[in-house]
């Protein structure tokens, strides 16, 4: 093997955790030293990750180390939340971390306070995640080439393998797309001429239809793009969190301005829907590949981790069921990055998966 991972946890956030993770991964991969290392550290290291990064570099005898701090980490073998931990993936053989290459997808990591929309929209097709917790606050850090990035973000190409990228929104649509007919700022006023709140309540499952007690943390607004036919089936939609309801105006407030005439639908975050969609994502990305992936990267929402799935991360489980011997590394963050509808997008409550193969059909 030229790729392997390791996840190490302990009661205290010591730099040696990063070194131990690198050494274990090197041993599993049969490498004396790697070409590059992806290193993720728990939030316990966020204020000063430099000692841990240096320890990892010494253990690897390599300066090509990139990664970030995050609230939780995982590999194909385990996940950790709310405990000091380090996760490492060592890359050997012909695999390397390099500055963004023309025509190649760009692995992108960003601290929550460093997100820049001009930067995000430029620089090629991006995939990755935001290092942060659900609040988007905290001293989260990003590093590249073994050094912390003052900009708060990094961008890289992984060369030596072909990548396929997909995402799972993890929601269940509640209705067919309909036309947005009235808005005011971020407030959805009417859909097909009817009050937005009435339309939403009508589509909710029984037991959740009280307009004064909507499960806002589970509700999303979907906006389709491209040809209207089969937009939901083909996954051609963006999702926005539902922020509030207004009983007096019968309106719904969402996280962005949506133009009149858009095709929209209501959706709900449900574990069963997310698990089903994740299974379809893994199978779809792998369906016509000529070989097993050499390794995989996953970027997962903190709000779609083990606690969403009642204590078991079923996104990881779906991946390992299909690819039981493939190294996987990832973290739980405050946003996921993917290229959709011709632009780089910042997602929420989603999972972005990248599979790296030696050979991928054109």
Q: State the helical fraction.
A: 10-25%
Question: How many β-strand runs?
Answer: 26
Unreliably modeled segments: none
Cα distance spanning the termini: 25 Å
The count of helical stretches stands at 6
Gross geometry: elongated
- Share of β-strand residues: 35-45%
Decide which structural class fits the backbone.
Answer: alpha+beta
- Characterize the biggest β-sheet: 6 strands, mixed
Q: Order of strands across the widest beta sheet?
A: 1-6-2-3-10-11
Roughly how many Å is the radius of gyration?
A: 21 Å
User: Which whole number gives the mean pLDDT?
Assistant: 92
Question: How is this structure best summarized?
Answer:
With 362 residues, this protein is α+β, with helices and mostly antiparallel strands.
Question: What labels describe this entry?
Answer:
362 residues, alpha+beta, six-stranded mixed beta sheet, 26 strands
Q: What can you see in these coordinates?
A:
With 362 residues, the chain is of the alpha+beta class. The chain has helices at 16-29, 50-60, 117-121, 196-203, 271-286, 314-322; strands at residues 3-9, 36-42, 65-70, 72-75, 79-81, 85-91, 96-98, 106-110, 126-130, 142-144, 147-148, 153-159, 162-168, 171-173, 178-184, 187-191, 194-195, 219-224, 237-246, 251-254, 263-269, 295-301, 328-333, 336-340, 343-347, 351-357. Strands 1-6-2-3-10-11 form a six-stranded mixed sheet, covered by helices on one side. A six-stranded mixed sheet has the order 5-4-23-22-26-13, with helices on one face. Strand 10 (142-144) and strand 11 form a beta hairpin. Helix 1 (16-29) packs parallel to helix 2 and helix 5 packs parallel to helix 6 (314-322). The chain is elongated and about 65 Å long. 46% of the residues are buried. The mean pLDDT is 92.
